[in-house]
C-alpha cells in the first residue's frame, strides 16, 4: 500500500500506550490482539500494520476470538449509537422486513449452535449475501466456523485499521 509512514500512521505510532490501546480496542475487542498490536509499534507502513493484524489474529486462542466476536453486533441489528456498526451493516438498510426476519431467525439458530454472533465482513455486502452466507456456514463444525470467523475478523480489522489511519490523517491535516 505505501512504502513510508503516512501522517495518520505516524500520529498513531506517536500515541501513548493508553491512547493507542483505546484506538485498537475500537478496531477489535480482543485485549490479546490489542496487546500484540501495541507490542509491534511503531509501524513503518500501512502494509506492516496490516501484516501485524494478520499475525496477531493467527495467534489468538478460542477465548481471545470469543472476546473479539463479542464486540460485534448481530447482523441486522447494529449497536444503537455506534456509527461503525451502522456503517458496516449498511447493506441491511434497505432490506425487506421478510429478509430481516429471516436473518434474525438464522442468527439465533447460529448463535444457539456456536455460542456467538454470526460474524462476516459486512462492508459492501447485501442482506441477501449475508443471509446466504449464514445458511452455508451454519453447517460448519465449530472448528471450521471458528477459523472462518477468524478470517472474517482479519478483513474487518483491516478495514477498521485503514479507517483509523485515514481518520488520523484527516485529524493531522486539521480536517
* Biggest sheet character: none
Q: Please compute the radius of gyration using only Cα atoms.
A: 17 Å
Number of strands: 0
| Pattern of helices and strands | HHHHHHHHH
**pLDDT averaged over residues:** 87
Taking the alpha carbons of the first and last residues, their distance comes to 23 Å
* Total of DSSP H or I helical runs spanning 4+ residues: 9
* Estimated structural class: mainly alpha
Which strand-content bin applies to the residues?
under 5%
* Overall outline: globular
Contiguous runs where pLDDT drops below 50 for at least 5 residues: none
**Which percent bin holds the helix content?**
55-70%
Any overview of this molecule?
66% of the residues lie in helices and 0% in strands. The mean pLDDT is 87. The protein is mostly helical and 175 residues long. Helix 1 (7-14) packs across helix 9 (142-172), helix 3 packs across helix 4 (46-58) and helix 4 runs antiparallel to helix 9. The chain starts with 6 loop residues before the first helix and ends with a helix. The chain has helices at residues 7-14, 17-27, 31-39, 46-58, 62-70, 83-88, 97-114, 127-137, 142-172.
Amino acid at each position: 500500500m505505501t512504502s513510508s509512514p503516512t501522517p495518520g500512521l505516524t500520529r498513531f505510532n506517536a500515541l501513548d500506550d493508553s491512547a493507542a490501546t483505546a484506538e485498537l480496542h475500537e478496531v477489535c475487542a480482543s485485549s490479546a490482539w490489542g496487546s500484540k498490536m501495541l507490542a509491534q509499534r511503531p509501524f513503518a507502513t500501512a502494509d506492516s500494520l496490516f501484516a501485524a493484524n494478520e499475525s496477531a489474529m493467527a495467534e489468538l486462542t478460542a477465548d481471545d476470538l470469543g472476546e473479539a466476536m463479542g464486540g460485534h453486533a448481530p447482523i441486522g441489528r447494529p449497536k444503537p449509537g455506534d456509527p461503525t456498526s451502522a456503517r458496516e451493516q449498511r447493506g441491511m438498510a434497505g432490506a425487506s422486513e421478510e429478509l430481516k426476519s429471516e436473518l434474525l431467525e438464522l442468527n439465533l439458530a447460529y448463535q444457539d449452535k456456536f455460542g456467538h454472533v454470526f460474524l462476516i465482513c459486512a462492508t459492501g455486502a447485501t442482506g441477501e449475501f449475508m443471509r446466504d452466507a449464514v445458511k452455508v456456514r451454519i453447517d460448519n463444525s465449530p472448528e471450521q466456523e471458528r477459523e472462518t470467523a477468524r478470517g472474517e475478523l482479519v478483513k474487518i480489522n483491516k478495514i477498521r485499521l485503514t479507517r483509523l489511519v485515514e481518520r488520523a490523517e484527516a485529524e493531522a491535516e486539521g480536517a
